[in-house]
Write a structure and sequence with these properties.
367 residues; alpha/beta; Spore Coat Polysaccharide Biosynthesis Protein SpsA, Chain A; 2 domains; eight-stranded mixed sheet; two-stranded antiparallel sheet; 13 helices; globular
């Protein structure tokens, strides 16, 4: 059987159908580590959903928190019997997701981070409708960074990240157009059979594990429906150092993804690394070939103009953010570029065939 035929056969397993009667049982997976500042708010929004509490569960997979995260979850468990706290010995989010998926009972599995706002009491109902109406294998969503109560720097980070200069050009995470899309950057909810088809998250990833899984989903030919009805809002980093560290992790994840799946290479995703390498090595090469100083100056000047021009254009919406926008862009680009270069030099080469297979119990739990 050809790859195309296998993909079509797999896609036919995800046709529109009622699950569990009128509504599916939904397992909400929340991997956390040291999320005491946000976890109560996120869980409150989930547990107060206008969705039959007998038809959903929330599984918090804790990766060894040293703050009050576990205590907060334990306290909330006394009021909510559909809230469960699991231990994630692997620490990383990828391992926590796998622990919770294996323990879950849902026909639909939804991934939610511990530091986001759903701000929609109909979120689970909208998700169930999206699966029912589209017949897709997975559902994707926008995830803007504009949360309530954000500081001036956080608002600048949100504005920068939502621009074409601030995120991967092929990503749909800031889109508002409903329809079928490639799952790589947006899929966050899955029919249970998806994991039986493509396997679980690769636990060697501490960033981009969702993109890596969704790449396998795409290769299997499984359709992804994108809808702004299930958007969530993420909390932007509150400091430039925190933003840099976040993008550094993303850069490392992007390089690790390329090592495992060579077909994920895109020029846009590696421009920050190329720019940073040129920024560091340009003066060295220019010492031996002086004409390169002109090229070096031209590239740096073009970058500065692009950042300044984009910052001015965005700053027209909120002038108070203009002084912070260039710094936000620099932190994003240097962090992502440094992460790629660091992983390229010292990173482990994963085996391309590495797949974490679900246990037999996962298939038996599907209803």
């Amino acid at each position: 059987m050809s790859d195309t035929a296998r993909a079509l056969q797999a896609a036919r397993a995800f046709v529109p159908r009622p699950i569990n009667g009128d509504r599916p049982f939904i397992s909400v997976i929340v991997p956390v580590r040291n999320e005491a500042a946000f976890i109560a708010g996120t869980l409150s929004q989930l547990l107060s959903q206008e969705y039959d509490p007998r038809l959903f569960e929330v599984l918090v997979a804790d990766g060894g928190s040293t703050d009050a995260t576990r205590d907060i979850v334990t306290t909330m468990q006394r009021r909510h019997t559909n809230l469960r706290l699991l231990s994630n010995g692997g620490g990383w989010s990828s391992a926590g997701r796998n622990v919770a998926i294996e323990a879950s009972r849902g026909d639909v599995i939804l991934l939610v981070d511990g530091h986001c706002d759903l701000d929609n009491p109909q979120y689970l109902a909208n998700l169930a409708d999206a699966f029912e109406e589209s017949g897709a294998a997975c559902v994707g969503r926008p995830q803007p960074l504009d949360v309530r109560g954000a500081s001036r720097l956080q608002r600048a980070v949100a504005l920068a990240r939502a621009s074409r200069l601030g995120h991967h050009p092929s990503s749909h995470i800031y889109s508002d157009a409903e329809g079928f899309v490639p799952p790589q950057s947006v899929a966050i909810a899955y029919r249970r059979a998806v994991f039986e088809t493509v396997g679980l998250f690769d636990e060697s990833f501490d960033a981009c594990e969702d993109v890596e899984l969704n790449h396998r989903v795409a290769k299997a030919g499984l359709p992804c429906w994108f809808t702004p009805k299930v958007r969530v809002r993420y909390h932007p980093r509150g400091t430039l150092a925190g933003l840099y560290r976040q993008m550094f992790r993303y850069g490392r994840g992007r390089m690790r993804l390329l090592r495992k799946h060579r077909d994920t290479f895109s020029i846009g995703g590696f421009v920050p690394a190329a720019f940073l390498a040129g920024l560091i090595l340009g003066p060295l090469f220019s010492m031996f070939l002086p004409i390169l100083w002109i090229v070096y100056g031209g590239v740096v000047g073009f970058y500065a103009l692009a950042v300044l021009g984009t910052s001015i254009a965005l700053g027209l919406r909120e002038p108070a953010l203009l002084p912070l926008l260039p710094a936000a862009f620099v932190a994003v680009h240097l962090g992502a570029g440094a992460g790629v270069l660091w992983e390229a030099v010292i990173g482990r080469r994963p085996r391309a065939e590495t797949v974490y297979h679900p246990s037999a119990a996962l298939g038996r739990k599907a209803g």
